[in-house]
Amino acid sequence: MAESSRFDHDLVLAHKFPETTYTYTERDAAIYALGVGACGRNAIDSDELKYVYHEDGQQFVQVLPTFSALFSLGSLTNGSIDLPGLQYDPRLLLHGQQYIQIYKPFPSSASVINKVSLAGLHDKGKAAILELETKSYEKESGELLCMNRSTIFLRGAGGFSNSSHPYSYSNYPKNQAPALKIPKSQPFAVFEDCTQPSQALLYRLSGDYNPLHSDPMIAEVAGFSRPILHGLCSLGFAVRAIIKCICRGDANTIKTISGRFLLHVYPGETLITEMWLEGLRVIYQAKVKERNQAVLSGFVDLHHLTSSLQLQYSSRQETQEFHPREVVGAEAQ
Questions:
Q1: 213, 257, 264, 283: the active-site residue
Q2: H/E stretch holding 111
Q3: For 113-152, what is each residue's pLDDT tens digit?
Q4: CA 259 vs CA 151, 170, 290: distances in Å
Q5: Phi–psi pair at 181, nearest 5 degrees
Q6: Is 283 annotated in the active site?
Q7: Which of 240, 224, 229, 223 is nearest to 268 (CA)?
Q8: What are 163-192's pLDDT values in tens digits?
Q9: CA angle 184, 188, 192 (to 5 degrees)
Q10: Which among 102, 228, 246, 283 is annotated as catalytic?
């Protein structure tokens, strides 16, 4: 637990985070796509082959929007989240939420400059909540590609401020982190997909080498029966489901992604993603089928709906009677 006498609000706000550079190639984008389940059940999936192969003469592979979460990975793993007066044990770090704004489609390969700033810091007594905002710019053009906001729970790092007036700071609009309620109505679409027993080992090749996801002994110390899946991998699975069911395979429709990690997933378990369409917002919830437990929830904002989907949505609004379009497995079309 940090000592409150060492905490200085002005020093915290004046702290400069180091810039990081993330360079990737088409190979990295394709390995990431495989890591979040693309073409996992059907190697020639018509919606997803473009993420791993130059299909129909396309010049470059396309990049999934959740790939952008990797841009901010360096801020979480290289010690740059240290703040004056805040002490924590990296082994007790938990990734709580991820918020992503997409400004333009990602190149198939690029060097990205990441500028990190403090978005929020909250003293919760026994723990601290740290929010880091990473804006990623294409190095060659200088164009802003995306913004990631990572919410990190630092167990044992609370108590760094006056206990009678716990410190709490945020510098982003409240509407970017709305209180999310999962609708009780029947979902607009449901997608079922299986993770592979080796899913975490494949996903870690994209740069997240936390041994919690690969080392049985580390996982056991952390309280798990075996290594668990990365939270951002689960997010990738859920957003893939939305791209397939709602965006009709067009990932460029996605504008904003928000995900809250609720519970762990074991590699090999089945994920069921339920989706509710509310205008241009998709509210979603992912459950583990084997345990019937919600592991992830959030929303995805879209630029637009396809004409056929708009007609389907409007018809449902008028009749209030709807049977969800269920797609079981990545091989279903």
A1: 213
A2: strand 110-123
A3: 999 999 999 999 888 899 999 999 999 999 999 999 999 9
A4: 10, 18, 21
A5: -120, 130
A6: no
A7: 229
A8: 778 888 888 887 766 678 999 999 999 999
A9: 100
A10: 228
